[in-house]
Amino acid sequence: MLYLFGFEQIGVAVSDIYFVDPNPERGQEGAERGVRLELRRLEQSELKGSIYSARPITVERPLWRVDLLESVSGTPGSFDRTHHHPGMNGWEPGRRVFDHALSGEPLQWLAERLSDLEGVLKEVGADPGEATPADVTGLRERAPEIVEVVGRLLDRVRATATPDEATTATSLRASWL
User: Fold this and answer.
1) 14 - beta bridge partners?
2) Nearest to 117 by CA among 105, 101, 129
3) What residues contact 146, with CB distance under 8 A and at least 6 apart?
4) Cα angle, residue 18 at apex, residues 24 and 77 outer, rounded to 5°
5) Which pLDDT band holds residue 165 (cuts at 50, 70, 90)?
6) DSSP 108-166
7) Cα–Cα distance for residue pair 113/111, rounded to 1 Å
8) Between the CA of residue 3 and those of 22, 38, 103, what are the distances in Å?
9) CB neighbours (10 Å) of residue 150?
10) I want to staple 69 with a disulfide (CB 3.0 to 4.6 A). Which of 8, 26, 34, 91 is the partner?
11) What is the helix, strand, coil percentage profile of the chain, to 5?
12) What is the phi/psi pair of residue 106, to 5°?
């Protein structure tokens, strides 16, 4: 499942994810599953037809990523692989940053961060011009809705009893983000 929330220049992409890291760090071996949220740039283009035509909107590069992951072999609800990437290098994530507050209360942590777009952009070293005032206000107002979607998606992921039940489509969706 892929959800997109769009504002003016900023979007939030939320998706289920299942993967096995081909080069895991020590203690991070084995399959992981959960929910990925990315703060993404949106590009709106000029209309391609009449004033009634659909406006082209492109979901562009990520600015920040949060992975609410758990090891498939672990206990559901453990958030033992939950981390964020406060830095992105183009399309590639920076290092994983594990935060006890994020693993302890992931939805609360996420709600606080989504309500502070300016703070997140500052933390990741992004130009403040990446977001408009409408992006800041819109994301703050929609943060509870986004967090609710993340929670529902986490419940759906956990309902998958075994890694064999994770479909190829779910694995492919992870590459969309």
Assistant:
1) 3, 37
2) 129
3) 5, 12, 14, 37, 110, 114, 139
4) 90
5) very low
6) HHHHHHHT-HHHHHHHTT--GGGS-HHHHHHHHHHHHHHHHHHHHHHHHHHT--SGGGS
7) 5
8) 27, 11, 22
9) 24
10) 34
11) 35, 30, 35
12) -60, -40
- What pTM was computed for the model? 0.86
φ, ψ (nearest 5 deg) of residue 90: 70, -120
Mean pLDDT of 162-176: 43
Residues 6 or more apart in contact with residue 112 via CB below 8 angstroms: none
| Distance (Å, whole) CA 78 – CA 80 | 5
* Cα atoms in the Cβ-side hemisphere of radius 13 Å centred on 119: 9
**92, 146, 147 from 153: Cα distances, Å:** 24, 11, 10
- Categorise residue 125: left if φ over 0, alpha if ψ from -120 to 50, beta otherwise: left
